[in-house]
Amino acid sequence: MGKFLKRQTKTIFIMLGNGCNLSCIYCLQHPLVHKPLSNKINPDIYEFIKECNEESGKDHPVHLQFFGGEPLVYYPNIEEIVEATKDTGCTYSVITNGKLMNDHMVEFFNKNNFWVTISWDGPNVMKTRGFDAFDPSSPLRRRLLRLDHLSISAVMSSKAYPKEILEGMQEISNQYYKLKGYQVGINIDQIFDTGITDKEILDVDYQRVRDEIEEMGKEFLLDTINSKYSRESYTKTMFIQDLYNHINQFYGKQNGIWNKYYCNCGNGYAILNMDLEGNLYTCHNTSTKVGTIYTPYFQYLNEVLKTDYTDHMRATCKDCAALAFCNGGCKLVSEQAREETYCKLKKAVFEPMLSLIQEYGKMVGESKNA
Q1: Helix H or strand E encompassing 279
Q2: pTM of the predicted model, to two decimals?
Q3: Would you state the pLDDT for residue 1?
């Protein structure tokens, strides 16, 4: 019998600290983080990680996601934690702005099979982050392209629209393919307001978003019908494929039924958020502590549930077309922010793809009955 709380754990976010070497205008942590994190490691976290991994089973190893602030500010602790957990079977990844990446880090991440995700918002990244990790003239770009498992994650906003982001990612992926023989991973999040002071970045042209999604969606469906996929359109294909997968999951496997009463991201449940002392948080982007690795499970879970009002949104969300995409949305976003910007952007991204799929299905059905 272990001495720590028991649960089925998929991922543990290792909250290394909340210091950062950039000051991105859309940073959702700025309004939510109020207390500094300790950078001193409690050795009991290693036993806790080991127990979580054993409970999950050898076929489902726990994933350790190193997180900040900016994780590379705390790089020595990453090495220490990997050394202490490398025999547990855990897998590793890190989300970073990349600015501090050096050759030693690249070698370490490759040696330990890290997925390294670089935050980058496309051609207009200087307007959102004030730093371009993939500047073609910088040695840093060449260093990042040496990573064996490279992903790029962007934030869609009034300064960064989906097509330009994906085209920028495609250019990087083309170069990466020449070096590695495979493409980069990609992700695009939609900006959301947790108390952002610069409201201009939330002033998204929703019609432009809809038009771009519709255009890329039509290209995707045409390529699907003709079974033609080009490496030059890889990033757009992957982005639209993800939207299609949400539709398939919700309407195909769930029969259009939303049966979640807690946040879809899993934060606090199958995803744990742990600082180096062993404190546990409702989300890795907040200072809201809900227990420790020593807390009895039901006491911990009760504290998590107090912070999660997803169930309260059921009446508002259940008839929304974008429900298949957001599954009730983020528990960090207030009802006011949902109404003003959050839900509008979710709908602008998802509704055009849903309409296209419905139109495509109708066409297929009519052709079969002809």
Answers
A1: strand 279-281
A2: 0.93
A3: 41
